[in-house]
Design goal:
single chain; 338 residues; alpha/beta; Peroxisomal Thiolase, Chain A, domain 1; five-stranded mixed β-sheet; 32% helix; globular
Amino acid sequence: MAASATGSGPLTLQRVGILGLGAYVPPKKLTNSDLEKMVDTSDEWIRQRTGIQERRILEKSESCSDLAIRAAQAALADARCDPLELDLIIVGTVTGDYPFPSTATLVQAALGAWNAAAFDLSAACPGFIYAASVGTQFIASRRYRRVLAIGAEALTKILDFTDRSTCVIFGDAAGAALLAPFEECRRGEILDVDLYSRGGQPELLYLPGGGSKNPTSAETVGKNMHYLRMSGRDVYRVAVETMGDMVRKAIQKYGKDEVALVVPHQMNRRIIESVIDRLNLDPARVMVNIEQYGNTSAASVPVAFREAVDRGLAVPGKIVLLCAVGAGFTWGSITLRW
Ligand SMILES: CC(C)(COP(=O)(O)OP(=O)(O)OC[C@H]1O[C@@H](n2cnc3c(N)ncnc32)[C@H](O)[C@@H]1OP(=O)(O)O)[C@@H](O)C(=O)NCCC(=O)NCCS
């Protein structure tokens, strides 16, 4: 049982680390040449403008929880953690199975994590960063010892496959991190969490229908309001600015040589390259796998992080920066010592 954070006496913060990582992508691929047959686009345009070659897509019968559960199981197996040890499950998603109940409760039931509280968190593409940040606070305050932070998205379920400006970009995936007191972890002490938001222009990237503003009706369906809409150029500008700021801040604090790995949100290869150019980063230290999966929103950072660790890109004792930006706008970063 976790120690109380509200007892008498001053609170000493608990150091937090990563006990396990997991990722899952569905097996079915949707390639650029598949998309050429669906909309007026070309493999060349998609590769040149985004760096994407293919993305993964769920079957009709599957949903966000199918992804989240598998990523969660992988993280628990990586940590050799029994689901009954979990205190909290947080799923960052904007494509949960239902508006309610939360996808996190579906994950809880599938895992048999009967001692855990569970909730979803809506922060769009930085959903995993926000989920892990919240989880970090619960462990730092000694309230909980095992928190599973998940980023999971079934974005292809809200794509208009007649709109070439959006349907080529996104894919389905999930990633998860099991957070625990650092002393019990072999790696990954969380040093900083930084969250930011700048609301005011929701229409630059949003799902117009189905919420309380435009409840589902024949009219909202007729007007295609249940599909993602995006003003690509505006999002691009904000992404280059905010991602650059987050990386610059980490470099200023820890020094360029210490930052051995940057795991940016995989939104567009050109956005990542522009940050690399502007800050004169070593491209070998920046994880990129967008060509295989496209933009998987909240899943993108934990999936890329898992792959970066598997490729040996995280250097023991050195800094890893995870950062993402998305709808809202919301953005945020987590700095770790590996
Ligand atoms: C979407 C994005 C790839 C578009 O690239 P872009 O270089 O900005 O392209 P534009 O939107 O200016 O469009 C340029 C032209 O390509 C066309 N185009 C758009 N999508 C196309 C596609 N899939 N295939 C072929 N042509 C396409 C446009 O219609 C436009 O044609 P026009 O000049 O005749 O009007 C880019 O803006 C982007 O990546 N933005 C960020 C998106 C993102 O990451 N969103 C998620 C945030 S988490």
